[in-house]
């Protein structure tokens, strides 16, 4: 192929237009994902390309270059030519326009611009090669100079030329000519450009950066020059060289690379496409990356920083593309300018292919990629300090930095604090520090001999040392901080750096207190994704703050432009680059480092497949961690998708089917007294590193099971009191400043607890049941878990206070796999093992309205049902309540306590369809009856004048204002009166309805006397002082209207008849107590 042009069509990866100068054909190339290649369109007309003809249908076009106006073929495709091959000895330097929508296997040009009159004399083989179009708006905005006028280019000077100029590369002169193609085949030369190459074989324009690219073939080893319009100096207004690029890595410099196109710019990078001129069959394409953001000129030195964090041994089908992305970014911005770094947790919690051989494949992959340095992460301490120093460090081809890791009781570092590198003449220092929470995140037994200091303080100390002017203790021009610590939320959660700073904690200190001498901040640990501009303490301006997420899904990139004389950063940009989708084989062929990575990965996967492919269990459905960002579809929880796969796993603040299943397995494995006699299983959410997916057949392999629990923890048991167990559950709310404010423990199926998150810290757990019985605070319970957790990991320090702590002799992997094998298939349990319940009173009387709220019952593991119904009962009562709707996981319960409710009862709420059973103890007192006339109470009714318009409507009868004789009516009084005693009255003759205690929901209940006259009355509620809270008109109807009898209304039969006949006036005089009607 001799020329390329890229069109973003919005379909797939777009279209590449290519011309072949041998056949004189135009090709439409489309990306074939299955083949991993760009291939000719399968349409019959295009499958072999379309032969090009001159206007009139004759000739054999020597097609050398192809270009688009506005990036769209809808405007036609422009082809640059050297000659008509039917008359090959005659120069014909023309631009031809073709309508590619025309049918057939040949295309005839609709227009020709022969440039022979405006270009120097050219040989038949020295004419037009590449062609690119630049819009007038870009040229005028940058002050492009018209060599005819020696003034700024004025598009109006060239009538009928459209909206831009064509830039054609000429082989014979090694120049690029800006020409206006005008109506009727006329053309005008606007400017001549010298790209300073021995030959111009292709021309391309990148609108995002405003750079014009000139490509040389094998005459100069495929070198590419980038040119920008100079904004000042003697060459202002002309295109001048600003950068040069070698051939793509892996391409033979002897190949005649004549095709070059730039794809769509995204996040500052665009794909680049290269085609050779019949060196490899004429249709060989290669792909790379190029920077396409705003160009930074001047003499500043570019430092290209590539970063990862929390890779966690991801040796799988994505590892080669992960490596390829690094190499693409390294090649795009210069090997000599690039440092590849890590913020830690490269190993630990790894996939099976890496984990089962001690993460050696991961260490080897990072070495093959020339990782320059890494901060130490907490997971590097998973097997203890000795393993890190004696195995991991010697096996790593890069320094592992930990400036805040000290020998116990000293300030003596046990790891290097920093490393320095020479990058294009500048000294770059990298300081590493790990989260201060590390002692709570790894097994304490492995780190007994070391301390962890404040990471910000230590970075500032080392940064000060590196900038104090003392060469004896190290000096640096540029300083990078690698913190294995990060923000609570990232961009996926909708967070901003301002919000994260306001939240306080470790990340806020990193951003706002890290020394101004530090030029860029990389973070990790929390698996969040962000690329932010952070404030510089004590200075104006900002600096980059980045975390990539995790698992190599993104490569973080920070580019610093540094004044080489002062070491000052004059400009920077920061972003996360998603892992490339380029085929593994293509990447391995292009980049030697990737080829080495592929060899390592292929061998590791093959070895792991042999061991890990053994089937050890099965599942009846997906059993997963909690997900974030998904939704309930048709009543079932489904995840959001990323690249067609579930996204948002590992929400450690929520209960999960997987966490609870692992807790059940711990009890099963450790219940034998010889194994420790566990009664309760507990699981820390961070210990669950993969899912149990049903897949096609529900079978679970050794590797899949191992990936769930990859840490190789020992299984321990310990004894705690009921009070200590409550304290453990309270510690799910983490200490102030922790990276994750809440960690949800998985609990075994015999445990249920309730909580109220609004209560004070340490008092949020409101009830615990073990084996269906309320926990006894001074009783002892055996807890089984991982040694990590029972040693106080994840800040569950109370567990470390347990007694009779024993090692079972089992490791988590072996016990887990044995459990899955014995219990196949395992089934997800969607019943929540905890719930939030609020509004439960200290006591409540029979007849009062119990108003409580139950929430936190919807799980977000895959396949979890959306709860819809709550069935309420009181233990010991025969009362049957109506079902209550559960909306968004919340059930608002308002029921009247029945007369048969025992004093000590339990509120029981069955949540369906998950099968969750929520319990809460309840103390019931006797019924609050209306005070009997003459028996005390109701002696001080409100005066008629107290029933003012201002208090009318301040109370509301539930169920409406029509009531029946003898009916109990619930009145909404207001939550501000909750717990207060109020009295009820009916007017006009003041009739006392009794007293009631206002519920937490702000309601009180009163019974209408059975002999209350029918008709309109005023219902009044007063507070304990007799002041009117509110009143409302109600209509009292006879009970007979709903099937009652005359006797039930306390009327004589003849009086009832009189009422029914309606022909007599009935006068009733009522007296209550000693007070007479006024």
TrEMBL record:
InterPro entries: 5'-Nucleotdase_C, 5'-Nucleotdase_C_sf, 5_nucleotidase/apyrase, Calcineurin-like_PHP, Metallo-depent_PP-like. One of its GO terms (biological process) is nucleotide catabolic process. The keyword Signal applies. Residues 924-963 are annotated as: Disordered. SUPFAM superfamilies: 5'-nucleotidase (syn. UDP-sugar hydrolase), C-terminal domain (SSF55816), Metallo-dependent phosphatases (SSF56300). Keywords: Membrane, Signal, Transmembrane, Transmembrane helix. The chain crosses the membrane at residues 1051-1069. GO terms for cellular component: outer membrane-bounded periplasmic space. Residues 305-528 form the Calcineurin-like phosphoesterase domain. Residues 647-801 form the 5'-Nucleotidase C-terminal domain. GO terms for molecular function: 5'-nucleotidase activity; UDP-sugar diphosphatase activity. PANTHER family: 5'-NUCLEOTIDASE, 5'-NUCLEOTIDASE-RELATED. This is 5'-nucleotidase C-terminal domain-containing protein. It comes from Microbacterium schleiferi. The lineage of its organism: Bacteria, Bacillati, Actinomycetota, Actinomycetes, Micrococcales.
């Amino acid at each position: 192929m001799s020329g390329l042009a890229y069109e973003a069509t919005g379909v797939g990866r777009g279209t590449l237009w290519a011309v072949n100068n041998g056949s004189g054909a135009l090709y439409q190339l489309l990306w074939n994902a299955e083949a991993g290649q760009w291939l000719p369109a399968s349409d019959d007309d295009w499958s072999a390309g379309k032969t090009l003809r001159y206007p009139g249908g004759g000739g054999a076009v020597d097609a050398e270059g192809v270009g688009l106006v506005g990036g769209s073929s809808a405007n036609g495709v422009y082809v640059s030519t050297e000659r008509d091959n039917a008359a090959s000895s005659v120069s014909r330097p023309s631009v031809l326009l073709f309508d590619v929508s025309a049918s057939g296997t040949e295309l005839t040009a609709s227009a020709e611009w022969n440039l022979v009159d405006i270009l120097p004399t050219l040989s038949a083989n020295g004419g037009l090669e590449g062609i690119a179009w630049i819009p007038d708006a870009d040229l005028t905005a940058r002050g492009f100079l018209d060599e005819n006028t020696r003034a700024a280019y004025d598009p109006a000077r060239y009538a009928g030329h459209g909206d831009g100029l064509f830039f054609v590369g000429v082989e014979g002169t090694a120049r690029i000519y800006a020409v206006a193609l005008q109506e009727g085949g006329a053309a005008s030369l606007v400017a001549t450009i010298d790209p300073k190459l021995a030959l111009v074989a292709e021309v391309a324009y990148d609108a995002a950066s405003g750079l014009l690219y000139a490509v040389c073939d094998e005459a100069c080893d495929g070198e590419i020059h980038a040119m920008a319009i100079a904004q000042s100096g003697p060459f202002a207004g002309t295109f001048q060289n600003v950068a040069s690029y070698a051939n793509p890595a892996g391409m033979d410099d002897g190949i005649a690379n004549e095709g070059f196109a730039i794809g769509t710019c995204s996040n500052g990078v665009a794909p680049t496409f290269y085609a050779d001129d019949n060196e490899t069959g004429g249709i060989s394409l290669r792909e790379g990356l190029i920077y396409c953001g705003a160009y930074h000129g001047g003499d500043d030195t570019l430092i290209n920083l590539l970063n990862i964090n929390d890779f966690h041994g991801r040796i799988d089908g994505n590892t080669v593309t992960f490596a390829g992305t690094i190499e693409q970014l390294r090649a795009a911005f210069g090997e000599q300018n690039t440092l590849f770094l890590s913020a830690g947790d490269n190993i630990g919690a790894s996939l099976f292919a890496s984990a089962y051989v001690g993460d050696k494949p991961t260490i080897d992959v990072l070495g093959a990629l020339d990782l320059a340095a890494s901060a130490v992460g907490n997971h590097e301490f998973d097997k203890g300090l000795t393993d890190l120093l004696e195995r991991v460090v010697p096996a790593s081809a890069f320094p592992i930095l930990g400036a805040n890791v000290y020998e116990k009781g000293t300030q003596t570092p046990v790891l290097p604090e920093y490393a320095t590198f020479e990058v294009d003449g500048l000294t770059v220092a990298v300081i590493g520090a790990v989260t201060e929470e590390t002692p709570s995140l790894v097994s304490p037994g492995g780190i007994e001999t070391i301390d962890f200091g404040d990471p910000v303080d230590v970075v500032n100390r080392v940064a000060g040392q590196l900038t104090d002017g003392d060469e004896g203790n190290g000096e640096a021009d540029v300083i990078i901080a690698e913190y294995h610590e990060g923000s609570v939320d990232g961009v996926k959660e909708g967070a901003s750096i301002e919000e994260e700073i306001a939240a306080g904690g470790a990340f806020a200190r990193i951003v706002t207190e890290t020394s101004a001498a530090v030029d860029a901040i990389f973070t990790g640990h929390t698996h969040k994704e962000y690329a932010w501009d952070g404030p510089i303490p004590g200075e104006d301006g900002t600096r980059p703050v980045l975390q990539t997420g995790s698992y190599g899904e993104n490569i973080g990139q920070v580019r610093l432009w540094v004044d080489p004389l002062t070491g000052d950063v004059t400009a920077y940009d920061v972003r996360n680059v998603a892992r490339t989708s380029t085929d593994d084989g293509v990447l391995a062929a292009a980049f030697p480092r990737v080829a080495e990575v592929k060899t390592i990965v292929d061998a590791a996967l093959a070895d792991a497949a042999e061991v890990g492919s053994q089937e050890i269990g099965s599942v009846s459905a997906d059993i997963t961690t909690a997900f974030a960002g998904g939704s309930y579809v048709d009543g079932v929880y489904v995840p959001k998708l990323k690249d067609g796969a579930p996204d948002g796993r590992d929400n450690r603040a929520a209960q999960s089917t997987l966490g609870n299943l692992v807790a059940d397995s711990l009890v099963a494995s450790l219940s034998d007294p010889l194994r420790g006699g566990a009664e309760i299983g507990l699981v820390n959410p961070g210990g669950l590193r993969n899912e149990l997916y049903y897949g096609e057949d529900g079978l679970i392999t050794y590797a899949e099971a191992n990936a769930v629990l990859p840490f190789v923890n020992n299984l321990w048991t310990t004894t705690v009191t009921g009070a200590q167990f409550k304290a453990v559950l309270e510690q799910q709310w983490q200490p102030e400043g922790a990276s994750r404010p809440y960690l949800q423990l998985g609990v075994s199926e015999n445990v249920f607890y309730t909580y109220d998150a609004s209560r004070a810290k340490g008092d949020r757990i409101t009830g615990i049941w073990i084996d269906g019985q309320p926990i006894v605070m001074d009783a002892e319970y055996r807890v089984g878990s991982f040694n990590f957790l029972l040693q106080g990991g994840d800040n569950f320090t109370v567990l470390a206070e347990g007694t009779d702590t024993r090692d079972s002799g089992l490791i988590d992997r072996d016990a887990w796999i044995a459990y899955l094998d014995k219990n196949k298939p395992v089934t997800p349990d969607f019943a929540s093992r905890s719930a939030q319940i609020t509004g439960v009173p200290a006591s409540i009387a029979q007849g009062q309205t119990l108003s409580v709220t139950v929430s936190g019952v919807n799980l977000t593991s895959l396949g979890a049902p959306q709860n819809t119904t709550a069935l309420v009962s009181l233990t010991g009562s025969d009362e049957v309540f109506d079902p209550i709707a559960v909306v968004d996981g919340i059930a608002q319960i308002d029921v009247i306590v029945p007369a048969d409710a025992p004093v000590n009862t339990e509120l029981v709420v069955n949540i369906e369809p998950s099968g969750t059973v929520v319990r809460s103890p309840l103390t019931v007192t006797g019924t609050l009856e209306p005070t009997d006339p003459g028996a005390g109470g109701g002696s001080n009714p409100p005066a008629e004048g107290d029933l003012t318009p201002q208090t009318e409507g301040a109370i509301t009868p539930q169920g409406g204002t029509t009531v029946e004789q003898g009916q109990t009516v619930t009145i909404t009084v207001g939550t501000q009166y909750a717990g207060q005693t109020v009295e009820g009255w009916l007017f006009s003759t003041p009739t006392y309805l009794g007293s009631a205690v206002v519920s937490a929901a702000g309601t009180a209940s009163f019974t209408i006397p059975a002999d209350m006259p029918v008709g309109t009355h005023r219902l009044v509620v007063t507070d304990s002082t007799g002041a009117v809270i509110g009143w409302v008109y109600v209509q009292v109807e006879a009970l007979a209207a709903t099937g009652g009898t005359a006797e039930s209304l306390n009327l004589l039969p003849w009086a009832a008849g009189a009422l029914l006949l309606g022909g007599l006036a009935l006068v009733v005089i009522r007296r209550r107590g000693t007070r007479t009607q006024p």
